[in-house]
Design a protein that fits this description.
This protein has 79 residues and is mainly alpha-helical. The chain is built from five helices and no strands.
Length: 79
């Protein structure tokens, strides 16, 4: 996951304290959201990813780029 890109999108949407505001919309504790974000999103559930995509109104291309680009690259290297 490209955490920095997600942080940029969240900051555009929410301004300051963006992670706290996003966590509230996801219904999780801000510290949990920070931990997941700082772990490159490895712990976000699929449902949480869907909610993040919805609340930020990101495009399908942005979502793939943020959440799946690294995984797709690893898959292509393995093939």
């Amino acid at each position: 996951m490209r955490a920095q890109k997600l942080k940029e999108i969240l900051k555009k949407k929410y301004g300051t304290r963006s992670a706290e505001k996003a966590a509230k919309e996801l219904g999780i504790d801000p510290s949990t959201f920070y931990r997941k974000l700082n772990n490159n999103g490895d712990d976000f559930t699929i449902e949480q990813m869907r909610r993040i995509i919805a609340i930020t109104e990101m495009s399908e291309d942005e979502a793939v780029d943020i959440f799946f680009t690294d995984e797709l690259a690893d898959t292509q290297e393995s093939a």
